[in-house]
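Practice problem: predict the structure.
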Amino acid sequence: MSVTDHRRLGIAAGTVFLSLFLAGCSGLGQNARGTIAYRTEERHEVQVSNPLVRGCHRLTSPGAVELTNRTLVDLMMYRSGDCTGDHTTYIATTLSDVIAPGTGPWRSYTIVH
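Answer:
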């Protein structure tokens, strides 16, 4: 095999791997890539890795008072345990937030995609 053949084979293999990598990172997949880290009122640290994109996700009781979104998607935080209600907080990708003084903790979230 000549150097040119090796180069073509390398380019073809690289293209295949790049395509697979990009498909795995798309928002159309089953999981959001990355982690969500939060702290409860009792100061327990909790980390969730690669959460499902669909559905309502409950946080560990009694909920989160501080959250860091290290995923590639945005989050909508809810004070209820079933992702309902008017009191929501939007936390964009790679950002953090804390609850306002005098308000209750976040108890659930959905992924915005």
